[in-house]
Amino acid sequence: MLSRRLSRDTGLRTVHSLPFRARISAYPTRIVSPSQRRIVSNLPSSRTTIPGTAPDFKTFFTTPPLTLTHLRQLSITTSKNAPKSTPKALKYAYRFAAWFGSSVLFVSLGVIGFFVYDATTYVDHASNKSDLTISQLALNPRRGGPKNLPILEVFIDDEDDEDRKRQKDKPRLVILGGGWGGVALLKELNPEDWHVTVVSPTNYFLFTPMLPSATVGTLGLRSLVEPIRRIIHGVRGRFLRARAEDVDFSARLVEVSQVDCHGVEQRFYVPYDKLVVAVGSVTNAHGVKGLEHCHFLKDIRDAREIRNRIIRNLELACLPTTSDEDRKRLLSFVVSGGGPTGVEFAAELYDLLNEDLIQLFPRLLRNEISVHLIQSRDHILNTYDETLSTYAEERFARDQVEVLVNSRVSEVKEDSIVFTQKQKDGTVITKELPMGFCLWSTGVSQADLCKTLSGKLGKAQNNRHALETDTHLRLNGTPLGDVYAIGDCATVQNNVADHIISFLRSIAWKHGVTDPEKLSLHFSDWRNVAEQVKKRFPQAVGHLKRLDKLFEEYDRDRSGTLDFGELRELLKTIDSKLTSLPATAQRAHQQGSYLAHKFNKLARAAPGLRANEISDGDVDAAVYKAFEYKHLGSLAYIGNSAVFDLGNDGWRFAGGLWAVYAWRSIYFAQSVSFRTRVLMAMDWGKRALFGRDLMSY
Hints:
single chain, alpha/beta, 16% strand
């Protein structure tokens, strides 16, 4: 039996009576600090040892254990001698100081690095002049063509470097215009395969979706433009600042004009192997009188003129000599056209008046200002979903922007605008609205070059508003594979029924029928025809999903087959459902990218085609698929809010500032270069910090 005894002081059970091994295991192992060892050594103990001798284990284990009182004394003494902890506030101060110091160091290094880089961009000495080899044909081009004009066969920079020397013998690709379609083509074209020349009357690319923001100073004018030569440099192309006047399709010559340094118009020819017409469009006047009193919004110069006119009207309204009637007229702003451009301009104008005007101009002006939006349809943004159009109208009504729907402008006077408005009961009344400013934004029409080409091609061109192309974007009526048209100046012709014979020819040969019009199609034959239609007209895919229902619907005589007349009626129905592609930057960009990929593939296939002596026929269709437009959605800014219509099967939503930031982010990402993105971000920041620029210059 093991004896048990209790401590006198605490009553704790001791282990002194346990065997030796049990005593050792009964004491837990603990790591203590040096200060705790010193404290323990000073505690009272009955154990005594002779200095210089080893302790006796028996005496050690028979020593009374540490009592609870001793442990408390140990804890109190240890806490008194332990170093004090740092306060939390001081810790946070240390962390903030470290973060702030690191930030200052990082910014300082960035500033120093920028100045070091900036110093390397300056050139202290003039570049060395060297002997240049320039062809005499570049300085004195030979004359020829129908009008015996100079022909630009050799450029003055063809011998500048080895890359240009290699390019001068490549096929000549001439692009007329520097808009969305032309720039998209340039950015994705393989520079090793083509000798590229861009002809445009302006030497910059304009980011048109943000143009309304530049009219009121939200964005600077330079933030929306990119030098076209900088874009062309990526494909080592040439640029001619001139205007295309005509095209000789048989001789493959483009006639261009430009005013020389003496003010005299000069004309010359630019030869091509492939020509891309991307000259854009002009504003549609709709036969309205007095449009010389209106402003348009198609170019950066238009934005500057609108900005100057708005500021001018505001300043004139502040003069003491201005009567109340003139002040109200000067502060009456009218927008004709309820499409995206007109709506976004009205929204930007409201933001200017509501956010900046009241701070810098007399408050009387804010009370007298009125904004009117005239729309011929029953809703603004009529190409968007109706719920979004209604939301935009309600937003404008809340912001005191008057929306006049079912209204058509009949005349624009110098100080007023006359329009007719259809009432709910069907009656039409005529109204006259005083105005000091009018923006005309009602559709597009053909440019002068497009009218010239359309008249020259005759019956091959039947559209009065745009040049007609096939689904491979080749201009109808021109030699196959020579001339293409993209962007606002062109429209894709959807004439499925006109190709019925070509669809039936192979099936008729398979069935041994000489005349395709006498052929009767079974369902398997109809499925074959549908596949050909989808391949040649990709936009018709959505109308050919249920082939069995279409076959059953147009089998009028219930014979189980489709005769020639029934098939023609079916294809004409599909034709009627195919609408023209929208005249937007999105469509032009997709067409430019499509042509770039096609031209790259044609260049790779050229050696094989030459080896097999293939120069005629539908090479485009053999090498690349037809163009298919994919609608990615439409956006519109409506005054500190935005609406999104992301296609037939997409989302439709609207919102406040979060939608504005999303709208900005999308266009920020689509900007043409890093330079313009930086400038746009800086302009938005300046508007937030300092407001809009209210200067006219």
